[in-house]
């Protein structure tokens, strides 16, 4: 049993707190993807909910905790999905939510954060600049800073996906997990290593934003100077030490994939699975595309973790079927 | 309680027979659609499963019945979704499945039917020609003809969606249901009228394939000479009398929508909900677009019933975000 910061009893309890609309997401074989990928592929679909990503599993826990304590305010830094989820969870519980984001964040995500009633503050610079500003607001105003991956609720919320995987009737060999700050990977990984240790946990990160992957391989925190990827949801530069410690206990591997493979993965999910996904959600397919031999004949589950994309950017990346057949 | 051919006890039992991968599909508010539609909108998503449509809820019942009786063969006519679903359900139970389809059917659907191991026979002419040929095969070979909407299993399978709607914590005013042969409408309508009679059941059909809608308004079977619509899933011309009788008991209204509205609905579901859908699945949104006043301020559920589209055709219909903002 992995001695992470996470606790399986709390993860089980979390399902009583999280709005059921975020639980029990679809898990299904997608045979149309298989000829091209050379392995059996199941999709765990985290986009068919009010915020179109898995993040609300965690923010439901955070918001519930705050509301229970009578703390009416929270702030977070977000590339968009955490902010949208915290706004949704906070609104339902009467919380006053501030989201700090890079002004280069995905427009569709920023619009949804505003529409959900949160205060949105934009900063110049990247996600790390937003993290600094959010921390400053929390310090000055004395309000709760919600830190993705560091805060145990964000990991244990994501871990409920792991419970759904191990409880399913499907048996599989490998779970491919998008790696950014590490909440999803440590959450799902914790449950898998405890309940189904034979299942391989493979984390996938963009080559252009490799901080946590380098850290996992080096067994020590490695920061990077930049994060250059279209996968905004996983574009951090400074891994959190406690999260790395957990990741070292639960991940079997961490791999990096090229931007072109992420785009190819998005295209395949569109053409063969009928799914519009954001770049982070295509990392698993990208990993198979880059190393078919490794996964040949195995049964992989890929967690399709979000679908918040700007339609214009999506089109530029993926093109059209007409472009591809031309 | 509506005296249809359907039986609620059997529908409840059906959930023990249908593979769980097809049950408990997502039901969620999609606020991003609401400003444009002027009403609260929830989506019941029937595309996140191995056959990308609701049809397997019915074919699971049919295939299970046949397997239980030791009948090893079945044939159906299909525009694609029923065939794909019957192929999937039959394969899992060792049945020999033949699907007859128009050679003008959606290529993506035909490819999936073949990939699932069914025998595919193409006929010239439209879906009604396929129905005739399937009946002939059944007669000559003495095998079970699976008739969509006429066969009670196809209706009661679809009706399990109705159970999920009435069991949800969400309350809503109207359910918008794609109308073709009537299995989905009579199935869901039966459960709603029995368990939540205050909820309005509105069927939506393309103006170019209006046979069942004309029949419902005229209270007698009205056939049409042609069916001209991109919504291949609902393009029948000869309503089945027994299905019309049921529909008269459970539908509050049946409306027709233009092709341009169906396309606009597909675009909205792509841009605001991140969903690729086939034309039939956009009928509900199309109905709201054509009569915003009617639905203003109400909470509608639209059943997104399928996502099997040819990527090329989809692109021709929907265009790109770049086209739309240009």
UniProtKB/TrEMBL annotation, chains A, B:
One of its GO terms (biological process) is L-serine catabolic process. Keywords: Lyase, Pyridoxal phosphate. GO terms for molecular function: L-serine ammonia-lyase activity; threonine deaminase activity. Signal peptide: none annotated. Residues 23-306 form the Tryptophan synthase beta chain-like PALP domain. InterPro entries: Ser/Thr_Dehydratase, TrpB-like_PALP, TrpB-like_PALP_sf. Its cofactor is pyridoxal 5'-phosphate. PANTHER family: THREONINE DEHYDRATASE (PTHR48078:SF17), THREONINE DEHYDRATASE, MITOCHONDRIAL-RELATED (PTHR48078). This is Threonine dehydratase. It comes from Streptomyces fuscichromogenes. The lineage of its organism: Bacteria, Bacillati, Actinomycetota, Actinomycetes, Kitasatosporales. The gene is ilvA.
């Amino acid at each position: 049993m992995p001695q992470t910061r996470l606790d399986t009893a709390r993860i089980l309890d979390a399902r009583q707190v999280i709005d059921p609309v975020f639980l029990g997401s679809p898990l299904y074989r997608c045979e149309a993807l298989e000829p091209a990928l050379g392995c059996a592929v199941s999709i765990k679909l985290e986009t068919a909910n009010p915020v179109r990503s898995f993040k609300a599993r965690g923010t439901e826990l955070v918001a519930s905790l705050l509301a229970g304590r009578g703390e009416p305010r929270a702030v977070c830094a977000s590339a968009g999905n955490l902010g949208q989820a915290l706004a949704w969870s906070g609104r339902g519980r009467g919380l006053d939510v501030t989201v700090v984001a890079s002004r280069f964040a995905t427009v569709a995500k920023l619009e949804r954060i505003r529409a959900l009633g949160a205060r949105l503050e934009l900063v110049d610079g990247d996600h790390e600049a937003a993290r600094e500003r959010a921390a400053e607001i929390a310090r000055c105003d004395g309000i709760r800073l919600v830190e993705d991956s560091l805060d145990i609720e964000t990991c244990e919320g994501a871990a409920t996906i792991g419970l759904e995987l191990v409880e399913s009737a499907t048996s599989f060999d490998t779970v491919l997990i998008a790696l950014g700050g590490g909440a999803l990977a440590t959450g799902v990984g914790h449950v898998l290593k405890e309940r189904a240790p034979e299942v391989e946990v493979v984390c996938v990160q963009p080559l252009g934003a490799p901080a946590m992957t380098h850290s996992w391989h080096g067994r020590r925190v490695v920061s990077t100077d930049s994060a250059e990827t279209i996968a905004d949801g996983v574009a951090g530069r400074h891994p959190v030490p406690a999260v790395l410690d957990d990741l070292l206990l639960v991940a079997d591997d961490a791999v990096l994939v090229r931007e072109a493979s992420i785009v190819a993965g998005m295209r395949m999910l569109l053409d063969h699975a009928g799914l519009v996904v954001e770049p982070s959600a295509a990392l698993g397919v990208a990993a198979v595309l880059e190393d078919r031999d490794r996964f040949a004949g195995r049964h992989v589950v890929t967690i399709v973790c979000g679908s918040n994309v700007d339609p214009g950017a999506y089109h530029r990346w993926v093109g059209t079927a007409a472009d591809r057949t031309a």
